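Researcher: Please translate sequence to structure tokens.
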Amino acid sequence: MPVTDILHVLTTSGGLAALLQVVMIDLVLAGDNAIVIGLAASGLVAKQRQRAILIGILCATALRIVFAVFTIQLLEIVGLLLAGGNSTAMGMLEDVARARQVQKH
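Model: Translation complete:
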């Protein structure tokens, strides 16, 4: 996708909302990673703690990139997005049916 197309999408309200959602999710995940890394490194000596935090941050960043690339590859498989959407919809319909059964009793 050319840069001009990306900029055009980002200038629409839907595109800007999608970008903000991605940024918020990324911030939440980064905060979660920081908490886990801090907890894991808290019992270490100061020098080891600094090294553990650095290695944790680098590994978390590398894993996020690998998972993003893997997800992009999966989304390019024809029909996979449709199958996932159908699976989610069926699960939601089952939940609604169960809730109605509980309300009847």
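Researcher: Any highlights?
Model: The chain is about 90% helix and 0% strand.
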